[in-house]
Input
Amino acid sequence: MLDSEQSRTPLVEMSDIYKRFGGIHAVEGVSTDLYPGEVVGVLGHNGAGKSCLMRILSGAMKANEGTIRVNGELADLQTPQDAKKYGIETIYQNLALANHLDAAANLFLGRELKTRFGNLDEARMHAETKDALRQLNPNFKNLKDPVAKLSGGQRQVIAIARAIYFQAKVLIMDEPTAALGPSETAMVADLTRRLKAEGIGIFLISHDMHDVFELCDRVMVMNKGRNVGAFKIEDVNKDDILSLIIKGSLPDDWAPRGPSK
Output
């Protein structure tokens, strides 16, 4: 976490969030926060409420109750466009890329650059995309290919570059290494560390315990719509997290692990 005056104000504060679908409580009274330069893991079984909570933060879903503050300011996130105005960008598991379009068209999808005559400025978009991608991966090629032909790692770089180009302050990463090979997984992990070092706050939704313990500063676990545990990563181990995910509680003999345990 960054040691600065700014870091004392959370980038995001979600307080007492509720989301109901009829009689089903998908999210029930959940609170969490995120600071600059911090990675917070959001864990839980499918249906535990973690993706629903993050969709509320991304503006894709409206909470029934609760408040969200961004940089201390009360934020009304009715749509994904509202979230983007606050610097909140989401990288979904399916990456939300248009497979038939190339990297530049995807990076600027919905936010295309125009010439002074109002036409698409394809040359500028290509140049900006080339620069943005090669800052993240100097070996990135195939800029003109439809993204359907690219590897999973290359597609992930495009999604991350899109968020960074539009000055994300908060990044929601949904299973960023799912279906990637070892080398591409390592590359995405390295990119995550670089984003963290630049002061971006990251909510990481993941089932991969290696990713969680390698990348996260804190972790919160959801079970049946509730936040059943939030800890500094050094205070828990994998068995503790699995117990929270499965049972909704810590092992009976649990004590804070501490960095030396």
